[in-house]
UniProtKB/TrEMBL annotation:
PANTHER family: EXPRESSED PROTEIN-RELATED, NUCLEOTIDE-DIPHOSPHO-SUGAR TRANSFERASE FAMILY PROTEIN. It comes from the Eukaryota. Keywords: Membrane, Transmembrane, Transmembrane helix. The keyword Membrane applies. The chain crosses the membrane at residues 20-39. Pfam families: Nucleotid_trans. Residues 156-353 form the Nucleotide-diphospho-sugar transferase domain. This is Nucleotide-diphospho-sugar transferase domain-containing protein. The lineage of its organism: Eukaryota, Viridiplantae, Streptophyta, Embryophyta, Tracheophyta.
Length: 386
């Protein structure tokens, strides 16, 4: 899930034992199930939401109930609908009690977004599972970077929505943060770390992509960040006002609007507008057009045609500011964020990010002239960082 492990010698998970057709059908079914189950499930009130949603869903599907349709095959349409809706006399009675809250298939998503968003409806999002929430794990390092960061970057935590993928991570999130959301999905066990390009990995990455589509469709801009990104300074000032999409680069070739850059979806800003909504639709379709590829590859495969079709402005972020282990920014005076990309394995990421934070701590404690002198450098090499 820690996106952008596009380089290096990863293990490629194989699903070759499953025929393409079967896995296509399974995948399609799973995508449908995911859409249906994107809802929050905090204890208490949440259960009410879910059952309200369930019952309204049952109402609308009732007319299709085979038995009732057959039994009333000769009846007029009105009768058919009434009978199908349950008991004729009950339906004829006063109007059915309205569902209390407007039931949403996304549970409390809109509530959480509203609370967390800036005045211009922007949220920062990250997505985690249990393996990353344990004390001393990646989530801790992530938070620590905000606290050690400069220029008020820690205030951005007010706008961070943490999307959790399993109930335990959701509970853990609520202990440490105000804006937590439980994205309920099925078919994948999200608790553990996923092998790059395994079937679960693909499912998870495409699920994440679908969820991002939902956010822009709800009218929110988002800056998605992997949790293995350290935030040292406010990155928003490097996102152009004119960009519909701004994406970090594994390798930045010097021109922010050249499609020749190598994107990394682990740090991705998307402005909500109808160009980006269309873009996400094509992106999701790309899952089936280029079956078996992950969303980052598909982004690369569709970027040219989509840019031509939608006139969408895609900005690739300069690794001097929005950096990663793939192309490391060595200027601590400029760096805003640092992603443990080009690095496989939770242990390796943690090791190197701890080293990064140690150096950053010393850097921020030093007087301005020493900082400017450039004497502070990352401790190299680490396991991945070099
Ligand atoms: C309709 O209502 C009657 C009386 O309340 C009940 O006996 C019958 O089982 C109900 N039928 C259905 C299909 O719910
Ligand atoms: C795009 O959005 C604008 C409003 O922001 C709307 O007027 C326009 O019809 C939309 N275009 C399409 C193609 O949906
Ligand atoms: C940070 O500073 C302390 C004190 O000067 C030093 O002992 C330590 O090695 C430094 N750590 C790093 C990672 O540079």
């Amino acid at each position: 899930m820690l996106g952008g492990k596009m380089k290096g010698g990863e293990t490629v998970g194989s699903s070759s034992s499953i025929s393409p057709l079967v896995s296509f059908v399974l995948g399609a079914a799973m995508a449908t199930v995911c859409i249906l189950f994107v809802m929050s499930a905090s204890p208490g009130r949440r259960l009410a939401d879910i059952s309200a949603w369930r019952s309204s869903a049952e109402d609308t599907t009732a007319p299709l109930h085979p038995q009732e349709v057959t039994a009333d095959a000769d009846a007029g349409d009105e009768q058919l609908v009434a009978a199908a809706a349950g008991n004729f006399t009950v339906v004829a009675a006063p109007a059915p009690a309205p569902v209390q809250a407007p039931a949403s298939p996304y549970g409390d998503l809109e509530e959480v977004l509203q609370r967390a968003a800036t005045a211009d409806k922007t949220v920062i999002m990250t997505q985690i599972n249990l393996a990353w929430t344990k004390p001393g794990s990646l989530l801790d390092l992530f938070f620590e970077s905000f606290r050690l960061g400069e220029g008020g970057v820690s205030r951005l935590l007010d706008h961070l929505v943490i999307v959790t993928m399993d109930p335990a991570a959701y509970e853990q999130c609520q202990v440490v943060h105000r804006h937590c959301y439980f994205l309920r999905t099925t078919g994948v066990d999200y608790r553990s770390e996923k092998m790059f390009m395994s079937k679960d990995y693909l499912e998870m990455m495409w699920g994440r992509n679908k969820f991002q589509q939902t956010i822009v469709e709800l009218g929110y801009n988002f800056l998605f960040t992997d949790v293995d990104v350290m935030w040292f300074r406010d990155p928003f000032r490097h996102i152009s006002m004119g960009a519909d999409i701004a994406i970090s680069s594994d390798v930045f070739i010097g021109d922010p609007y050249s499609l020749g850059n190598f994107p990394n979806g682990g740090f991705l800003f998307v402005r909500s507008n109808n160009k980006t909504i269309e873009f996400y639709k094509s992106w999701q379709q790309g899952r089936w057009r280029f079956f078996g590829k992950h969303e980052q590859d598909v982004f690369n495969l569709i970027k040219h045609e989509q840019q031509a079709k939608l006139d969408i402005a895609i900005q690739f972020l300069d690794t001097t500011y929005i950096s990663g282990f793939c192309q490391l920014s060595k200027d601590l005076n400029k760096i805003c964020t640092l992603h443990a990309n080009c690095c496989v394995g939770l242990g390796a990421k943690m090791h190197d990010l701890r080293g990064v934070l140690d150096v950053w701590r010393n850097y921020t404690a030093a007087p301005p002239d020493e900082r400017r002198s450039g004497k502070f450098q990352w401790k190299l090499p680490g396991i991945c960082i070099h």
